[in-house]
Amino acid sequence: MLSLLAAALALQASPPALPTPTPPKKRCVRIEETGSYVRKQRVCRTEAEWRALERRDGAELDRLRDRTPINSHRPDGS
Questions:
Q1: Is residue 58 domain-resident?
Q2: How far apart are CA 58 and CA 48, in angstroms?
Q3: 9 in any annotated domain
Q4: What's this model's pTM, rounded to 2 decimal places?
């Protein structure tokens, strides 16, 4: 009898509430606009977006470095 009552109470118990997903936090930085000493632009992105941007920029820098010959004759003003 007691086990039947315990089973009935277990069925009536509500399932545990699932945590609500929180939106990803954004990090904002101020970037100086080219050609202006005063004007700055505020850019807000998530941490994942900042990491993707850094990866993309790093890959672009590596690509440019690979294209430049090591012993190239660069103009030095002379």
A1: yes
A2: 15
A3: no
A4: 0.54
